[in-house]
Amino acid sequence: MRELTRKERLLLLKFVCSFAWADLKIHPREREFVSDLIRRLNLDDEESRQVEAWLTDPPPPESVDPSLVPKEHRMRFLRAVESVIAVDGEVSSAEREQLIIFAQLLR
């Protein structure tokens, strides 16, 4: 994930946070997953605060446009959102549906 630009890292986390909200709540394990991503991606304080804000209030739907995902990183984004929705041990039907749509839009 080190090859992602700053803009791409924030976009990835915006998608991850958006999918964490798919079931209308942030599970503690989802929050831990996002915190781990923040650390692994070496986000600075400002970027970290932005991501934390997305865990308090979901990103606006229009800001998580799959067409913004760079082609070379589509699988990375898909795996990250798959991971965040599965981390709490429960995949709701809303999460599953959104994941399927996201995967189709990335193709």
Describe this structure in words.
The chain has about 110 residues and is mainly α. About 65% of the residues lie in helices and about 0% in strands. Helix 1 runs parallel beside helix 3 and helix 1 (about 5-20) packs parallel to helix 4. It is globular.
Topology:
Layout: H1 6-20, H2 28-40, H3 45-56, H4 74-86, H5 93-106
Helix pairs in contact: 1-2, 1-3, 1-4, 4-5
Short overview:
By secondary structure, the chain is mainly alpha-helical. It has five helices and no strands.
Helix run count: 5
What best-fitting shape do the alpha-carbon axes yield?
globular
- From the N-terminal CA to the C-terminal CA, the straight-line distance is 20 Å
Major sheet size, sense and barrel closure = none
Order of helices and strands: HHHHH
Would you count the extended β strands for me?
A: 0
Q: Which percent range fits the helix content?
A: 55-70%
Outline the low-pLDDT stretches. none
Radius of gyration: 13 Å
Overall pLDDT level: 94
**What class, by secondary structure content?**
mainly alpha
Strand content: under 5%
Quickly list its features.
about 110 residues; mainly alpha; 5 helices; about 65% helix
